[in-house]
Amino acid sequence: MTDSAERIATNLRKGVLEFCVLGLLAQAERYGLELASDLQSRGLIASEGSLYPLLSRMRDGGLVDTRTVAMGGGRPRKYYTITTAGHDQLATFAAVWRSVGAEVNTIIEGTA
Amino acid sequence: MTAEDTYLRSVERMLSSIAPEHRADVLEDLRGHFADAEESGRPVDDIIRGLGTPAEIAERAQEEFGVSLDADDARAERAWRVLHGAAVIIAVLTGVVVAFIMPSVVGSAATVSSDGTVTVTDTTQTLVSADGLWVALIALVPALVAVVPLLVPRAARLVTSVIASILLTGMAIIGGFTIGGFFLPTALLAWTALFAWLSLRGRGVGLGWRIVGGVVTALPVIALTAAFAGFPGRYADTAGPDVQFSAWGWPFFAVVLALAVLIVFGYRSAGWVLAAIGVAVMVFGLVSGELVAMLFVWLGGIWLTVGLAHAMTASRR
Asked: Could you tell me if residue B127 is inside a domain?
Protein backbone atom coordinates (compact mmCIF):
# COMPACT_ATOMS: atom_id res chain seq x y z
CA MET A 1 0.00 0.00 0.00
CA THR A 2 1.27 3.50 -0.73
CA ASP A 3 1.58 6.07 2.02
CA SER A 4 -1.54 7.90 1.01
CA ALA A 5 -3.55 4.68 0.73
CA GLU A 6 -2.29 3.67 4.16
CA ARG A 7 -3.34 6.99 5.63
CA ILE A 8 -6.84 6.79 4.13
CA ALA A 9 -7.25 3.23 5.36
CA THR A 10 -6.07 4.16 8.86
CA ASN A 11 -8.57 6.97 9.11
CA LEU A 12 -11.47 4.86 7.86
CA ARG A 13 -10.62 1.94 10.13
CA LYS A 14 -10.43 4.22 13.12
CA GLY A 15 -14.06 5.22 12.62
CA VAL A 16 -15.43 1.72 12.18
CA LEU A 17 -13.28 -0.37 14.52
CA GLU A 18 -15.62 0.00 17.46
CA PHE A 19 -18.54 -1.33 15.41
CA CYS A 20 -16.49 -4.18 14.00
CA VAL A 21 -15.75 -5.20 17.58
CA LEU A 22 -19.47 -5.06 18.35
CA GLY A 23 -20.20 -7.08 15.21
CA LEU A 24 -17.73 -9.80 16.12
CA LEU A 25 -19.03 -9.95 19.67
CA ALA A 26 -22.60 -10.17 18.36
CA GLN A 27 -21.56 -13.43 16.65
CA ALA A 28 -19.95 -14.90 19.75
CA GLU A 29 -18.24 -13.86 22.94
CA ARG A 30 -14.49 -13.66 22.58
CA TYR A 31 -11.45 -13.15 24.75
CA GLY A 32 -8.93 -10.41 24.06
CA LEU A 33 -6.38 -12.38 22.07
CA GLU A 34 -9.12 -13.88 19.89
CA LEU A 35 -10.57 -10.49 19.08
CA ALA A 36 -7.15 -8.94 18.49
CA SER A 37 -5.98 -11.73 16.18
CA ASP A 38 -9.24 -11.71 14.27
CA LEU A 39 -9.20 -7.95 13.73
CA GLN A 40 -5.56 -7.97 12.76
CA SER A 41 -5.91 -10.78 10.25
CA ARG A 42 -8.75 -8.82 8.67
CA GLY A 43 -6.47 -5.81 8.47
CA LEU A 44 -8.71 -3.73 10.71
CA ILE A 45 -6.05 -2.91 13.30
CA ALA A 46 -2.37 -2.28 12.71
CA SER A 47 -1.25 -3.47 16.13
CA GLU A 48 -3.12 -5.74 18.52
CA GLY A 49 -2.32 -3.66 21.58
CA SER A 50 -4.39 -0.71 20.42
CA LEU A 51 -7.53 -2.83 20.83
CA TYR A 52 -7.39 -2.83 24.63
CA PRO A 53 -7.86 0.86 25.35
CA LEU A 54 -10.85 0.73 22.99
CA LEU A 55 -12.35 -2.26 24.84
CA SER A 56 -11.88 -0.53 28.18
CA ARG A 57 -13.68 2.57 26.92
CA MET A 58 -16.48 0.48 25.39
CA ARG A 59 -17.00 -1.36 28.66
CA ASP A 60 -17.07 1.98 30.45
CA GLY A 61 -19.73 3.11 27.99
CA GLY A 62 -21.82 -0.01 28.63
CA LEU A 63 -21.52 -1.35 25.06
CA VAL A 64 -19.69 -4.50 26.09
CA ASP A 65 -19.37 -6.45 29.28
CA THR A 66 -16.91 -9.02 30.54
CA ARG A 67 -17.25 -12.48 31.94
CA THR A 68 -14.40 -14.17 33.74
CA VAL A 69 -13.96 -17.88 33.15
CA ALA A 70 -11.56 -19.95 35.24
CA MET A 71 -8.97 -21.65 33.06
CA GLY A 72 -6.78 -24.64 33.74
CA GLY A 73 -4.02 -23.78 36.17
CA GLY A 74 -6.30 -21.36 38.01
CA ARG A 75 -5.71 -18.56 35.52
CA PRO A 76 -8.88 -16.57 34.84
CA ARG A 77 -9.67 -15.59 31.27
CA LYS A 78 -11.74 -12.52 30.51
CA TYR A 79 -14.39 -12.93 27.80
CA TYR A 80 -16.00 -9.90 26.22
CA THR A 81 -19.72 -10.01 25.51
CA ILE A 82 -22.01 -7.51 23.79
CA THR A 83 -24.69 -5.78 25.86
CA THR A 84 -28.19 -4.71 24.80
CA ALA A 85 -26.90 -1.17 24.41
CA GLY A 86 -24.12 -2.60 22.24
CA HIS A 87 -26.66 -4.39 20.03
CA ASP A 88 -28.65 -1.15 19.65
CA GLN A 89 -25.50 0.74 18.74
CA LEU A 90 -24.55 -1.91 16.20
CA ALA A 91 -27.99 -1.73 14.56
CA THR A 92 -27.76 2.08 14.37
CA PHE A 93 -24.31 1.85 12.85
CA ALA A 94 -25.44 -0.74 10.29
CA ALA A 95 -28.20 1.56 9.07
CA VAL A 96 -25.88 4.57 8.86
CA TRP A 97 -23.17 2.53 7.18
CA ARG A 98 -25.55 1.26 4.51
CA SER A 99 -26.84 4.71 3.66
CA VAL A 100 -23.43 6.41 3.77
CA GLY A 101 -21.83 3.53 1.87
CA ALA A 102 -24.50 3.67 -0.82
CA GLU A 103 -24.02 7.42 -1.27
CA VAL A 104 -20.25 7.10 -1.38
CA ASN A 105 -20.55 4.31 -3.95
CA THR A 106 -22.87 6.39 -6.12
CA ILE A 107 -20.46 9.32 -6.07
CA ILE A 108 -17.24 7.45 -6.76
CA GLU A 109 -18.74 5.10 -9.34
CA GLY A 110 -17.41 5.99 -12.74
CA THR A 111 -15.07 8.66 -11.35
CA ALA A 112 -12.25 6.32 -10.37
CA MET B 1 13.06 -8.86 34.48
CA THR B 2 11.50 -10.66 31.52
CA ALA B 3 10.77 -8.95 28.20
CA GLU B 4 7.06 -9.18 29.06
CA ASP B 5 7.54 -7.37 32.37
CA THR B 6 9.63 -4.67 30.74
CA TYR B 7 6.96 -4.18 28.11
CA LEU B 8 4.10 -3.99 30.65
CA ARG B 9 6.10 -1.59 32.86
CA SER B 10 6.70 0.63 29.89
CA VAL B 11 2.99 0.62 28.98
CA GLU B 12 2.06 1.39 32.58
CA ARG B 13 4.39 4.38 32.62
CA MET B 14 3.12 5.70 29.32
CA LEU B 15 -0.48 5.38 30.47
CA SER B 16 0.17 7.45 33.59
CA SER B 17 -2.03 10.28 32.32
CA ILE B 18 -5.18 8.18 31.97
CA ALA B 19 -7.50 7.27 34.82
CA PRO B 20 -6.17 4.47 37.07
CA GLU B 21 -9.18 2.19 36.46
CA HIS B 22 -8.70 2.33 32.68
CA ARG B 23 -4.99 1.83 33.07
CA ALA B 24 -5.64 -1.25 35.23
CA ASP B 25 -8.13 -2.57 32.64
CA VAL B 26 -5.66 -2.24 29.78
CA LEU B 27 -2.81 -3.82 31.74
CA GLU B 28 -5.00 -6.71 32.84
CA ASP B 29 -6.05 -7.34 29.24
CA LEU B 30 -2.45 -7.19 28.08
CA ARG B 31 -1.42 -9.73 30.71
CA GLY B 32 -4.23 -12.01 29.56
CA HIS B 33 -3.11 -11.47 25.97
CA PHE B 34 0.44 -12.52 26.84
CA ALA B 35 -0.74 -15.57 28.78
CA ASP B 36 -3.11 -16.76 26.03
CA ALA B 37 -0.59 -16.12 23.26
CA GLU B 38 2.20 -17.90 25.14
CA GLU B 39 -0.11 -20.84 25.72
CA SER B 40 -0.65 -21.10 21.97
CA GLY B 41 3.10 -21.33 21.52
CA ARG B 42 3.90 -17.86 20.22
CA PRO B 43 7.36 -16.64 21.20
CA VAL B 44 7.40 -13.54 23.42
CA ASP B 45 9.22 -11.42 20.82
CA ASP B 46 6.53 -12.21 18.32
CA ILE B 47 3.75 -11.34 20.78
CA ILE B 48 5.38 -8.00 21.57
CA ARG B 49 5.79 -7.22 17.87
CA GLY B 50 2.12 -8.02 17.29
CA LEU B 51 0.97 -5.77 20.14
CA GLY B 52 2.84 -2.76 18.81
CA THR B 53 4.94 -0.30 20.79
CA PRO B 54 3.83 0.98 24.21
CA ALA B 55 3.73 4.42 22.61
CA GLU B 56 1.12 3.22 20.08
CA ILE B 57 -1.05 1.82 22.88
CA ALA B 58 -0.67 5.05 24.84
CA GLU B 59 -1.64 7.07 21.80
CA ARG B 60 -4.77 4.98 21.29
CA ALA B 61 -5.61 5.31 25.00
CA GLN B 62 -5.17 9.07 24.76
CA GLU B 63 -7.66 9.09 21.86
CA GLU B 64 -10.15 6.89 23.69
CA PHE B 65 -10.09 8.60 27.04
CA GLY B 66 -8.88 12.07 26.29
CA VAL B 67 -6.47 13.28 28.93
CA SER B 68 -9.00 12.23 31.58
CA LEU B 69 -8.93 15.64 33.18
CA ASP B 70 -11.71 14.65 35.55
CA ALA B 71 -9.79 11.81 37.13
CA ASP B 72 -6.59 13.84 37.35
CA ASP B 73 -8.49 16.74 38.82
CA ALA B 74 -10.17 14.59 41.44
CA ARG B 75 -6.82 13.11 42.45
CA ALA B 76 -5.18 16.54 42.62
CA GLU B 77 -8.09 17.86 44.67
CA ARG B 78 -7.90 15.00 47.16
CA ALA B 79 -4.11 15.29 47.50
CA TRP B 80 -4.37 19.03 48.13
CA ARG B 81 -7.17 18.70 50.69
CA VAL B 82 -5.37 16.00 52.66
CA LEU B 83 -1.98 17.75 52.65
CA HIS B 84 -3.32 21.22 53.36
CA GLY B 85 -5.75 19.79 55.91
CA ALA B 86 -2.76 18.19 57.61
CA ALA B 87 -1.04 21.60 57.64
CA VAL B 88 -4.04 23.07 59.50
CA ILE B 89 -4.30 20.19 61.97
CA ILE B 90 -0.57 20.34 62.71
CA ALA B 91 -0.79 24.13 63.13
CA VAL B 92 -3.64 23.78 65.63
CA LEU B 93 -1.88 21.01 67.56
CA THR B 94 1.41 22.91 67.61
CA GLY B 95 -0.34 26.11 68.66
CA VAL B 96 -2.18 24.43 71.53
CA VAL B 97 0.92 22.62 72.76
CA VAL B 98 3.13 25.70 72.47
CA ALA B 99 0.62 27.95 74.22
CA PHE B 100 -0.82 25.74 76.92
CA ILE B 101 1.33 22.69 77.51
CA MET B 102 4.97 23.21 76.61
CA PRO B 103 7.03 24.42 79.56
CA SER B 104 9.52 27.16 78.92
CA VAL B 105 12.12 28.59 81.24
CA VAL B 106 11.12 32.06 82.27
CA GLY B 107 13.73 32.74 84.89
CA SER B 108 16.27 31.21 87.18
CA ALA B 109 17.14 32.10 90.67
CA ALA B 110 20.35 31.28 92.47
CA THR B 111 20.31 30.67 96.17
CA VAL B 112 23.39 30.32 98.28
CA SER B 113 22.96 28.14 101.28
CA SER B 114 24.87 28.56 104.53
CA ASP B 115 27.58 26.03 103.55
CA GLY B 116 28.30 27.93 100.35
CA THR B 117 26.58 25.59 97.89
CA VAL B 118 24.91 27.43 95.07
CA THR B 119 21.59 26.02 93.97
CA VAL B 120 20.12 27.28 90.72
CA THR B 121 16.39 26.91 90.46
CA ASP B 122 14.81 27.34 87.06
CA THR B 123 11.28 28.54 86.98
CA THR B 124 9.33 26.99 84.16
CA GLN B 125 5.93 28.09 83.08
CA THR B 126 3.72 27.57 80.11
CA LEU B 127 3.25 30.48 77.75
CA VAL B 128 -0.33 31.04 78.89
CA SER B 129 0.58 31.27 82.55
CA ALA B 130 3.62 33.44 81.86
CA ASP B 131 2.20 35.97 79.44
CA GLY B 132 -1.54 35.57 79.67
CA LEU B 133 -4.21 34.26 77.35
CA TRP B 134 -3.89 36.86 74.61
CA VAL B 135 -0.19 36.28 74.07
CA ALA B 136 -0.79 32.56 74.11
CA LEU B 137 -3.43 32.95 71.42
CA ILE B 138 -0.74 34.34 69.09
CA ALA B 139 0.44 30.75 68.87
CA LEU B 140 -2.84 29.94 67.14
CA VAL B 141 -2.41 32.59 64.41
CA PRO B 142 -0.60 30.17 62.05
CA ALA B 143 -3.60 27.83 62.27
CA LEU B 144 -5.92 30.70 61.27
CA VAL B 145 -3.68 31.62 58.35
CA ALA B 146 -3.44 28.02 57.23
CA VAL B 147 -7.20 27.43 57.27
CA VAL B 148 -8.06 30.30 54.89
CA PRO B 149 -7.24 28.51 51.58
CA LEU B 150 -9.57 25.66 52.61
CA LEU B 151 -12.47 28.07 53.05
CA VAL B 152 -12.20 30.25 49.95
CA PRO B 153 -13.75 29.30 46.58
CA ARG B 154 -11.61 27.20 44.26
CA ALA B 155 -10.89 30.12 41.96
CA ALA B 156 -9.11 31.96 44.78
CA ARG B 157 -7.24 28.90 46.00
CA LEU B 158 -3.97 29.40 44.17
CA VAL B 159 -3.56 32.98 45.36
CA THR B 160 -4.62 32.41 48.97
CA SER B 161 -2.58 29.25 49.15
CA VAL B 162 0.59 30.95 47.96
CA ILE B 163 0.02 33.89 50.35
CA ALA B 164 -0.71 31.57 53.28
CA SER B 165 2.41 29.49 52.54
CA ILE B 166 4.59 32.60 52.34
CA LEU B 167 3.11 33.97 55.61
CA LEU B 168 3.61 30.64 57.39
CA THR B 169 7.19 30.43 56.18
CA GLY B 170 7.78 34.02 57.25
CA MET B 171 6.36 33.40 60.71
CA ALA B 172 8.45 30.26 61.12
CA ILE B 173 11.64 32.02 60.08
CA ILE B 174 11.07 35.29 61.95
CA GLY B 175 9.95 33.33 65.00
CA GLY B 176 13.15 31.40 64.57
CA PHE B 177 14.25 29.45 67.56
CA THR B 178 11.47 30.76 69.75
CA ILE B 179 8.01 29.43 69.10
CA GLY B 180 8.08 30.29 65.38
CA GLY B 181 10.31 27.40 64.45
CA PHE B 182 7.72 24.92 65.67
CA PHE B 183 5.54 25.96 62.74
CA LEU B 184 8.07 25.02 60.05
CA PRO B 185 6.30 21.67 59.43
CA THR B 186 3.03 23.56 58.86
CA ALA B 187 4.71 25.76 56.25
CA LEU B 188 6.34 22.72 54.65
CA LEU B 189 3.00 20.91 54.42
CA ALA B 190 1.30 23.97 52.91
CA TRP B 191 3.98 24.33 50.20
CA THR B 192 3.91 20.61 49.46
CA ALA B 193 0.10 20.65 49.19
CA LEU B 194 0.36 23.45 46.65
CA PHE B 195 3.11 21.75 44.67
CA ALA B 196 1.30 18.39 44.62
CA TRP B 197 -1.93 20.05 43.53
CA LEU B 198 -0.31 21.90 40.63
CA SER B 199 1.75 18.87 39.56
CA LEU B 200 -1.13 16.40 39.59
CA ARG B 201 -3.27 18.76 37.52
CA GLY B 202 -0.39 19.19 35.11
CA ARG B 203 2.08 16.58 34.03
CA GLY B 204 1.69 14.40 37.08
CA VAL B 205 4.49 13.31 39.36
CA GLY B 206 7.11 10.76 38.43
CA LEU B 207 10.36 9.19 39.50
CA GLY B 208 11.99 12.57 40.22
CA TRP B 209 9.34 13.37 42.82
CA ARG B 210 9.80 9.98 44.50
CA ILE B 211 13.59 10.27 44.51
CA VAL B 212 13.35 13.68 46.19
CA GLY B 213 10.98 12.13 48.76
CA GLY B 214 13.32 9.22 49.42
CA VAL B 215 16.40 11.41 49.71
CA VAL B 216 14.71 13.94 52.01
CA THR B 217 13.53 11.03 54.18
CA ALA B 218 16.94 9.39 54.37
CA LEU B 219 19.14 12.48 54.71
CA PRO B 220 18.48 13.23 58.41
CA VAL B 221 19.06 9.57 59.23
CA ILE B 222 22.33 9.51 57.30
CA ALA B 223 23.42 12.77 58.92
CA LEU B 224 22.61 11.48 62.43
CA THR B 225 24.26 8.14 61.73
CA ALA B 226 27.40 9.92 60.54
CA ALA B 227 27.36 12.08 63.66
CA PHE B 228 27.10 9.08 65.97
CA ALA B 229 29.36 6.72 64.06
CA GLY B 230 31.97 9.37 63.36
CA PHE B 231 32.48 10.20 67.01
CA PRO B 232 32.20 6.95 68.94
CA GLY B 233 31.84 7.44 72.61
CA ARG B 234 31.28 11.11 72.25
CA TYR B 235 28.00 10.87 74.07
CA ALA B 236 28.93 7.84 76.11
CA ASP B 237 29.71 9.83 79.21
CA THR B 238 26.65 11.92 78.88
CA ALA B 239 23.79 10.55 80.85
CA GLY B 240 20.36 11.25 79.55
CA PRO B 241 18.47 11.20 76.33
CA ASP B 242 21.42 11.01 73.91
CA VAL B 243 22.59 7.62 75.11
CA GLN B 244 19.09 6.12 75.11
CA PHE B 245 18.61 7.63 71.69
CA SER B 246 21.54 5.83 70.16
CA ALA B 247 20.52 2.53 71.80
CA TRP B 248 17.11 2.24 70.17
CA GLY B 249 18.14 4.43 67.30
CA TRP B 250 19.74 1.88 64.96
CA PRO B 251 16.78 -0.38 64.23
CA PHE B 252 14.61 2.71 63.98
CA PHE B 253 16.99 4.28 61.46
CA ALA B 254 17.03 1.05 59.46
CA VAL B 255 13.23 1.13 59.24
CA VAL B 256 13.23 4.73 58.04
CA LEU B 257 15.89 3.98 55.41
CA ALA B 258 13.87 1.00 54.20
CA LEU B 259 10.81 3.24 53.92
CA ALA B 260 12.85 5.77 51.92
CA VAL B 261 13.80 3.04 49.45
CA LEU B 262 10.20 1.79 49.18
CA ILE B 263 9.08 5.36 48.52
CA VAL B 264 11.54 5.67 45.62
CA PHE B 265 10.05 2.44 44.23
CA GLY B 266 6.58 3.95 44.56
CA TYR B 267 4.89 1.84 47.23
CA ARG B 268 2.03 3.85 48.70
CA SER B 269 1.87 2.07 52.07
CA ALA B 270 5.45 3.19 52.82
CA GLY B 271 4.13 6.75 52.67
CA TRP B 272 1.44 6.09 55.27
CA VAL B 273 3.90 4.37 57.62
CA LEU B 274 6.41 7.21 57.30
CA ALA B 275 3.67 9.79 57.91
CA ALA B 276 2.65 7.95 61.08
CA ILE B 277 6.26 7.85 62.27
CA GLY B 278 6.51 11.56 61.48
CA VAL B 279 3.48 12.35 63.64
CA ALA B 280 4.87 10.26 66.50
CA VAL B 281 8.26 11.99 66.34
CA MET B 282 6.59 15.41 66.20
CA VAL B 283 4.35 14.69 69.18
CA PHE B 284 7.35 13.34 71.10
CA GLY B 285 9.26 16.54 70.30
CA LEU B 286 6.37 18.80 71.29
CA VAL B 287 5.70 17.19 74.66
CA SER B 288 9.25 16.21 75.61
CA GLY B 289 10.33 19.63 76.81
CA GLU B 290 13.88 18.76 75.78
CA LEU B 291 16.27 21.34 74.41
CA VAL B 292 16.31 19.43 71.16
CA ALA B 293 12.50 19.46 70.94
CA MET B 294 12.64 21.71 67.92
CA LEU B 295 14.81 19.21 66.03
CA PHE B 296 12.31 16.43 66.70
CA VAL B 297 9.48 18.63 65.50
CA TRP B 298 11.34 19.42 62.29
CA LEU B 299 12.37 15.82 61.71
CA GLY B 300 8.84 14.54 62.32
CA GLY B 301 7.46 17.33 60.17
CA ILE B 302 9.68 16.37 57.25
CA TRP B 303 8.72 12.70 57.51
CA LEU B 304 5.03 13.50 57.90
CA THR B 305 5.14 15.74 54.84
CA VAL B 306 7.06 13.31 52.62
CA GLY B 307 4.99 10.34 53.79
CA LEU B 308 1.65 12.01 53.28
CA ALA B 309 2.65 13.55 49.94
CA HIS B 310 3.84 10.17 48.75
CA ALA B 311 0.72 8.37 49.96
CA MET B 312 -1.46 10.85 48.07
CA THR B 313 0.48 10.68 44.81
CA ALA B 314 1.79 7.10 44.56
CA SER B 315 0.28 4.96 41.85
CA ARG B 316 1.29 1.57 43.21
CA ARG B 317 -0.73 -0.15 46.01
From this structure: no
